[in-house]
Structure prediction request, 231 residues.
Amino acid sequence: MKKACVVLLLIIAVALPTFAQQKEQDRVQNAGQVVQEILNIPDDIPQSVIDKADCVVVLPSVLKFAFGIGGSYGRGVMSCRGGQDFKGPWSAPTMMALEGGSFGLQLGGQATDFVLLLMSPRSARSILDSKVKLGGDISAAAGPVGRNASAETDITLRAEILSYSRARGLFAGISLTGSTLRADNAANKKLYGKAVSAHDIVFNNEVQAPPAAKLLLAELNKKSPTNKSNS
Prediction:
Protein backbone atom coordinates (compact mmCIF):
# COMPACT_ATOMS: atom_id res chain seq x y z
CA MET A 1 0.00 0.00 0.00
CA LYS A 2 2.79 2.38 0.96
CA LYS A 3 4.63 1.56 -2.26
CA ALA A 4 1.50 2.27 -4.30
CA CYS A 5 1.13 5.67 -2.60
CA VAL A 6 4.74 6.54 -3.37
CA VAL A 7 4.25 5.61 -7.03
CA LEU A 8 1.07 7.70 -7.18
CA LEU A 9 2.83 10.70 -5.68
CA LEU A 10 5.66 10.36 -8.18
CA ILE A 11 3.19 10.24 -11.07
CA ILE A 12 1.46 13.38 -9.76
CA ALA A 13 4.79 15.16 -9.30
CA VAL A 14 5.70 14.44 -12.92
CA ALA A 15 2.24 15.22 -14.35
CA LEU A 16 1.56 18.53 -12.59
CA PRO A 17 4.28 20.59 -14.34
CA THR A 18 3.20 19.17 -17.70
CA PHE A 19 -0.44 20.01 -16.99
CA ALA A 20 0.48 23.54 -15.86
CA GLN A 21 2.55 24.10 -19.00
CA GLN A 22 -0.26 22.87 -21.23
CA LYS A 23 -2.68 25.26 -19.51
CA GLU A 24 -0.46 28.23 -20.34
CA GLN A 25 0.07 26.97 -23.90
CA ASP A 26 -3.72 26.85 -24.30
CA ARG A 27 -3.92 30.48 -23.20
CA VAL A 28 -1.34 31.46 -25.80
CA GLN A 29 -3.21 29.55 -28.51
CA ASN A 30 -6.51 31.14 -27.47
CA ALA A 31 -4.91 34.58 -27.62
CA GLY A 32 -3.80 33.88 -31.18
CA GLN A 33 -7.32 32.84 -32.13
CA VAL A 34 -8.77 36.01 -30.59
CA VAL A 35 -6.29 38.21 -32.49
CA GLN A 36 -7.01 36.42 -35.77
CA GLU A 37 -10.77 36.82 -35.35
CA ILE A 38 -10.67 40.44 -34.19
CA LEU A 39 -8.31 41.55 -36.94
CA ASN A 40 -10.74 40.11 -39.50
CA ILE A 41 -13.74 42.07 -38.19
CA PRO A 42 -14.77 44.67 -40.82
CA ASP A 43 -14.79 47.52 -38.26
CA ASP A 44 -11.87 46.43 -36.14
CA ILE A 45 -8.87 48.24 -34.67
CA PRO A 46 -7.84 51.01 -37.10
CA GLN A 47 -4.67 50.24 -39.02
CA SER A 48 -3.24 53.64 -38.11
CA VAL A 49 -3.64 52.76 -34.42
CA ILE A 50 -2.13 49.28 -34.34
CA ASP A 51 0.77 50.50 -36.50
CA LYS A 52 1.77 52.86 -33.67
CA ALA A 53 1.46 50.30 -30.86
CA ASP A 54 4.65 49.12 -29.14
CA CYS A 55 2.96 46.10 -27.51
CA VAL A 56 -0.32 44.20 -27.70
CA VAL A 57 -1.97 42.49 -24.72
CA VAL A 58 -4.60 39.83 -25.43
CA LEU A 59 -6.77 38.47 -22.61
CA PRO A 60 -9.20 35.78 -23.79
CA SER A 61 -12.44 35.08 -21.90
CA VAL A 62 -12.11 37.42 -18.93
CA LEU A 63 -14.81 36.67 -16.34
CA LYS A 64 -16.22 38.77 -13.53
CA PHE A 65 -16.10 37.38 -10.01
CA ALA A 66 -19.28 35.83 -8.63
CA PHE A 67 -18.83 37.96 -5.53
CA GLY A 68 -18.06 41.59 -4.80
CA ILE A 69 -18.96 44.50 -7.03
CA GLY A 70 -17.45 44.47 -10.45
CA GLY A 71 -14.26 42.61 -9.59
CA SER A 72 -12.73 40.76 -12.51
CA TYR A 73 -9.66 38.71 -13.26
CA GLY A 74 -8.21 37.67 -16.55
CA ARG A 75 -5.04 36.06 -17.84
CA GLY A 76 -3.50 36.31 -21.24
CA VAL A 77 -0.37 37.26 -23.12
CA MET A 78 1.59 40.29 -24.25
CA SER A 79 3.86 40.56 -27.26
CA CYS A 80 6.02 43.62 -27.96
CA ARG A 81 7.93 44.73 -30.98
CA GLY A 82 11.51 43.56 -30.49
CA GLY A 83 14.49 45.60 -29.38
CA GLN A 84 14.98 48.43 -26.90
CA ASP A 85 13.34 50.86 -29.33
CA PHE A 86 10.34 48.59 -30.13
CA LYS A 87 11.09 48.65 -33.85
CA GLY A 88 11.72 44.94 -34.49
CA PRO A 89 9.41 41.97 -35.14
CA TRP A 90 6.91 40.91 -32.49
CA SER A 91 8.48 39.13 -29.52
CA ALA A 92 7.85 35.82 -27.83
CA PRO A 93 4.82 36.20 -25.56
CA THR A 94 4.99 37.01 -21.87
CA MET A 95 2.07 35.98 -19.70
CA MET A 96 -0.06 38.77 -18.21
CA ALA A 97 -2.80 39.26 -15.61
CA LEU A 98 -5.59 41.86 -15.48
CA GLU A 99 -7.24 42.42 -12.10
CA GLY A 100 -9.93 44.55 -10.48
CA GLY A 101 -12.01 47.31 -11.99
CA SER A 102 -15.75 47.45 -12.65
CA PHE A 103 -15.77 46.46 -16.31
CA GLY A 104 -17.19 43.02 -15.45
CA LEU A 105 -20.50 44.50 -14.38
CA GLN A 106 -20.56 46.88 -17.32
CA LEU A 107 -20.40 43.90 -19.65
CA GLY A 108 -23.18 42.03 -17.89
CA GLY A 109 -21.00 39.28 -16.50
CA GLN A 110 -20.32 37.71 -19.87
CA ALA A 111 -17.00 36.12 -20.76
CA THR A 112 -15.21 38.87 -22.63
CA ASP A 113 -12.09 39.05 -24.77
CA PHE A 114 -9.87 42.10 -24.22
CA VAL A 115 -7.19 43.56 -26.46
CA LEU A 116 -4.99 46.36 -25.11
CA LEU A 117 -2.58 48.39 -27.20
CA LEU A 118 0.41 49.95 -25.44
CA MET A 119 1.07 53.17 -27.27
CA SER A 120 4.22 54.44 -25.56
CA PRO A 121 7.59 52.96 -24.59
CA ARG A 122 6.99 54.18 -21.02
CA SER A 123 3.78 52.16 -20.66
CA ALA A 124 5.47 49.06 -22.08
CA ARG A 125 8.49 49.27 -19.79
CA SER A 126 6.37 50.06 -16.73
CA ILE A 127 4.15 47.02 -17.22
CA LEU A 128 7.08 44.72 -17.95
CA ASP A 129 8.74 45.67 -14.67
CA SER A 130 5.85 46.18 -12.22
CA LYS A 131 2.10 46.22 -11.68
CA VAL A 132 0.41 49.38 -12.98
CA LYS A 133 -3.02 50.87 -12.41
CA LEU A 134 -4.76 51.85 -15.62
CA GLY A 135 -5.90 55.44 -15.52
CA GLY A 136 -3.62 56.06 -12.53
CA ASP A 137 -0.01 55.03 -13.11
CA ILE A 138 -0.65 54.85 -16.85
CA SER A 139 -3.21 56.86 -18.83
CA ALA A 140 -5.80 54.65 -20.54
CA ALA A 141 -8.84 55.11 -22.75
CA ALA A 142 -11.31 53.21 -24.89
CA GLY A 143 -9.74 52.70 -28.28
CA PRO A 144 -11.21 54.09 -31.50
CA VAL A 145 -12.97 51.56 -33.75
CA GLY A 146 -13.42 51.43 -37.49
CA ARG A 147 -11.11 51.38 -40.47
CA ASN A 148 -11.63 55.10 -41.07
CA ALA A 149 -10.89 56.12 -37.47
CA SER A 150 -7.68 58.04 -36.97
CA ALA A 151 -4.83 57.42 -34.59
CA GLU A 152 -4.42 61.19 -34.33
CA THR A 153 -7.57 61.89 -32.30
CA ASP A 154 -7.10 63.74 -29.03
CA ILE A 155 -7.96 60.68 -26.94
CA THR A 156 -5.41 58.54 -28.79
CA LEU A 157 -2.70 61.15 -28.54
CA ARG A 158 -3.18 61.44 -24.77
CA ALA A 159 -3.67 57.79 -23.81
CA GLU A 160 -0.74 55.45 -23.25
CA ILE A 161 -3.00 52.37 -23.41
CA LEU A 162 -6.01 51.89 -25.69
CA SER A 163 -8.41 49.09 -24.76
CA TYR A 164 -10.95 47.07 -26.70
CA SER A 165 -13.46 44.34 -25.82
CA ARG A 166 -15.43 41.65 -27.59
CA ALA A 167 -18.51 40.15 -25.94
CA ARG A 168 -21.68 38.63 -27.37
CA GLY A 169 -20.22 39.06 -30.81
CA LEU A 170 -19.83 42.83 -30.41
CA PHE A 171 -16.46 44.56 -30.72
CA ALA A 172 -15.90 48.01 -29.22
CA GLY A 173 -13.53 50.28 -27.37
CA ILE A 174 -13.95 50.05 -23.59
CA SER A 175 -12.44 51.86 -20.63
CA LEU A 176 -10.53 49.68 -18.14
CA THR A 177 -9.74 52.57 -15.81
CA GLY A 178 -9.26 51.36 -12.24
CA SER A 179 -8.05 47.88 -13.12
CA THR A 180 -4.44 46.77 -12.81
CA LEU A 181 -2.19 45.04 -15.32
CA ARG A 182 0.94 43.10 -14.45
CA ALA A 183 3.33 40.52 -15.84
CA ASP A 184 2.59 36.99 -14.61
CA ASN A 185 6.09 35.61 -14.13
CA ALA A 186 4.78 32.51 -12.34
CA ALA A 187 2.89 31.65 -15.53
CA ASN A 188 6.01 32.43 -17.59
CA LYS A 189 7.88 29.81 -15.57
CA LYS A 190 5.17 27.24 -16.32
CA LEU A 191 5.08 28.11 -20.01
CA TYR A 192 8.84 28.14 -20.63
CA GLY A 193 9.87 25.54 -18.06
CA LYS A 194 12.24 27.90 -16.25
CA ALA A 195 12.15 31.14 -14.31
CA VAL A 196 12.22 34.02 -16.79
CA SER A 197 10.96 37.56 -16.36
CA ALA A 198 8.73 39.47 -18.75
CA HIS A 199 11.53 42.01 -19.17
CA ASP A 200 14.02 39.33 -20.25
CA ILE A 201 11.52 37.73 -22.63
CA VAL A 202 10.88 40.98 -24.49
CA PHE A 203 14.19 42.85 -24.29
CA ASN A 204 16.81 40.12 -23.94
CA ASN A 205 15.32 37.33 -26.08
CA GLU A 206 15.91 34.86 -23.24
CA VAL A 207 13.48 32.31 -24.72
CA GLN A 208 12.21 31.21 -28.09
CA ALA A 209 8.53 31.67 -28.81
CA PRO A 210 6.69 28.39 -28.13
CA PRO A 211 4.85 26.63 -30.98
CA ALA A 212 1.59 27.69 -29.32
CA ALA A 213 2.43 31.32 -30.24
CA LYS A 214 2.71 30.65 -33.97
CA LEU A 215 -0.75 31.99 -34.87
CA LEU A 216 -0.48 35.00 -32.55
CA LEU A 217 2.85 36.17 -33.94
CA ALA A 218 1.92 35.39 -37.55
CA GLU A 219 -1.21 37.54 -37.30
CA LEU A 220 0.59 40.45 -35.62
CA ASN A 221 3.46 40.39 -38.10
CA LYS A 222 1.03 40.20 -41.00
CA LYS A 223 -1.26 42.95 -39.72
CA SER A 224 1.47 45.36 -38.61
CA PRO A 225 5.04 44.35 -39.50
CA THR A 226 6.47 47.86 -38.96
CA ASN A 227 6.23 50.27 -36.05
CA LYS A 228 5.15 53.60 -37.52
CA SER A 229 5.20 55.62 -34.31
CA ASN A 230 7.59 58.53 -33.92
CA SER A 231 8.80 57.39 -30.48
The first helix runs from residue 2 to 38.
